[in-house]
Each structure stands twice: as C-alpha cells, then as structure tokens.
Fold Piwi domain-containing protein.
Amino acid sequence: LNTKLGGRNQALDDGAFKALLQGKPTMFMGCDVTHPAPGEQHKPSIASVVGSVDFMATCYAATLIQLPSREELVGKLQEAVVRHLKLFFKGTQTKPQRIVFYRDGVSETQFAQVRDREIIEIQRACSSLENGYKPEITFLAVLKRHNTRFFPMGRDGDRTGNCVPGTVIDRSVTIPGMSDFYLFAHAAIQGTSRPTHYCVLHDDSKFAVDAIQQITYQLCYTYAICTRSVSLVPPVYYAHRVADRARCHLVDMGIGFDEANSERVGYYGGGGSTSLRTAPGDPNRTTRVITINPILDTSMYFM
C-alpha cells in the first residue's frame, strides 16, 4: 500500500550507491514480454517497460506496449523510452547521464536481434529529445530459464547447502567472447537455488566487471514487497507484475487479433483512454485495451 501511494519502503545507502554509479544520475529500466496462453492466438502479446523516477531506483513508472501475438521483440520501444526519460526528469529535475536497461524474455539466439533493434531504439529515443543528448547505455539480457546449477565446496555454503547470497560466477562456465555472469542474489528457502544469468550486450559506461555485478546485486535488496534480497533484479520483477496486471485489463470480446495489420502496434502509457481495434473484414470482433487512470500514471499501481 505504501508503494502504491508513492512511498518508499527501503533504499540503499546513498553514498555507497552513488559511488558505484560514479556520481552520474542513472535511470534503471526493465522490460518483459508476456504471451497469451496456448490456444489463444487471437490475443495480443503485451510488453511492459518500467523505469525509475528517482535517484535511488526505488520508485518506478510503467508503460505498456501491445504487440502482435507471440512477438518477442518490442516494437515502439522508442516512444516508451522517451516517456520514461521525461518522467525521470520530472521526478528529479535532472536528465539521466546513464541508462541501465535489464531485458528479460530473450534467449541466447536472439541476442543479435535485440542488439540490432532495441538498443538502437533507445539511442534514437535519447537523440529525439535533444540534439547531442547521448547518455551512456548499458544493456543486459536476463536469463532465468536455464539448467545451470552451482554447489559450494566444503562448508562455504549456507545452512541449506546452497551458495550464500552475493555469490558470483563469472569464469570457466560463461559465454566466450561476452561479458556475462551468474548471480546468487537470494537465500534459498527450500531446495536448490538457481542463479540468474546476466549477459552484458552493450556497455557505453565501460563498467568494471565487479561494478556492474555489485550494482545488480545491491538492486536486489530494493524490491518493495520483500524484506530480503530477491533472485531477480527488481526492474525486471516490476515488469513482470505490470505485464500480469495488463493481462487482466484486456477485455476479450471474442475477436481475432489483427495479424495482417501487425505493423499497427498499439502503444499506451496511462492516458486514461480506451483503444479499440477491429479485425479486417469483421467490424464486430474487437479487442479493447483498458489503460490506467492518469492519476496513477507515475505511481507503482501494479504492486
């Protein structure tokens, strides 16, 4: 309830966190795509984008993008990033000098596509706001669905036999030719803990390997509804919640999604309006996307 009303439950140490970021105003963003259930091809996929609106990365605003069914790459990402840049400036009166973007939902085979499309969209969003405005962009892919497990040697683990929170593996089993690492950010309550795999696809900031790992790990302590660290970086967790909430806002009226006109990707960010789409040849079959009230546009309503 506190976060829904604009409050903050916890925050990292101000000085230490800013030292990791080298004193540069940084906007943290997360993105995820949710797809309809099997057998529901007429429903669209929903991409959710969240971005921090304060210096300490504790408050986030959300944007939703409607995609063609089963589409993984996010269209209209440029408009979403522009909106979040404006919201960050509104909340801090400062333009971000650095953007750290965590992208969930892509596999290793899609890294090249994401690098060639979505990173360029972010760069275009920045340059469209002001000539010469080029903040440093760090883009990380987040992989959770993998079968890699690690076990500590001897008595180096916790009471459950898992790796202690903060354990990082960044050699021997990582991807050759790429900066990536496995992070145990949480304490396992039961069973074998599974690390999160982070792959750095683009890094204008030239972060030291330890620095980006430390930033990611510390962010895992800022998840608003948990008093402990979580296994996944909070911007991605929030993007998951936004996408799940958006699925509840879709009112299915028995329509077929407009696959033939899929370039007309719908975009909405809380204008309080309702957008309608009509399938070609059948004006009675429509999908209605319900947006949030504009009063909640910059609040964490999805918590």
